[in-house]
Amino acid sequence: MSAHRLIVSILPSVGACLFAILCVLTYLPDTASAAPPQCRIDVKPVNFGAYVPGSSMDVDANGEVRVRCGGKRKKAKKGGSSSYTLRIDGGQTGNPASRAMRSAAVNLFYNLFSDAARFVIWGDGSAGTSPVTQAFSGEKYDKRHAVYGRVFVGQYPDTGSYADAPLVTIEF
């Protein structure tokens, strides 16, 4: 089995309390698929803006992972459907269930979710997190997946810019 990696985006914006997603496209061939779809992913960072220390409200912000596929590919099964799985790792903490943006040695805890209610932690399948799996068919496909971020209430970080860059992986 082989894997190919392509860095798509690592362009964080500048500002207090920011978040950028590093994106990697991975093709993991299996016996059911004859050829990978020709796909690309684009990432819109989650930028939380300013955080007020000791805030009594969570700070929410949204980003996006967009998957676009096109071109001819061999159809592995009758009906020609395919699927992919999007995983987001734990970033600097290594734990997708407990992510933190850092400024020097200070942490500002946050997490990423696949649902607007911010209940399902978008991760890699470890530590109670869930990846996102999507089926698609046809030769052209364009899907935007919202990334829902939340910085948690009641933290007292030092003044500064905080960032993290968890890795997004797409598997076919």
Explain this structure.
The protein has a single domain, classed as Sandwich (Immunoglobulin-like), CATH 2.60.40.1090. 0% of the residues lie in helices and 41% in strands. With 172 residues, the protein is mainly β. The N terminus is likely disordered. A five-stranded mixed beta sheet has the order 1-2-10-5-8, with no helix packed on it. A five-stranded antiparallel beta sheet has the order 3-4-9-7-6, with no helix packed on it.
In short:
0% of the residues lie in helices and 41% in strands. It has 172 residues and is mostly beta strands. Strands 1-2-10-5-8 form a five-stranded mixed β-sheet, with no helix packed on it. Strands 3-4-9-7-6 form a five-stranded antiparallel β-sheet, with no helix packed on it.
Structural class: mainly beta
Say which CATH homologous superfamily is assigned.
Fimbrial-type adhesion domain
State the helicity in percent bands.
under 10%
CA(first)-CA(last) distance: 13 Å
Low-confidence parts, pLDDT < 50 over ≥5 residues? 1-20, 22-34
Tell me the name of the CATH class: Mainly Beta
Strand arrangement, major sheet = 1-2-10-5-8
The number of strands is 10
What overall form do the CA principal axes indicate?
elongated
Here the CATH topology equals: Immunoglobulin-like
- Strand fraction equals 35-45%
Calculate the mean pLDDT score and round it.
77
CATH architecture: Sandwich
Helices and strands, in order, run as EEEEEEEEEE
Largest sheet: 5 strands, mixed
Number of domains: 1
* Rg of Cα set: 17 Å
- Count of helices? 0
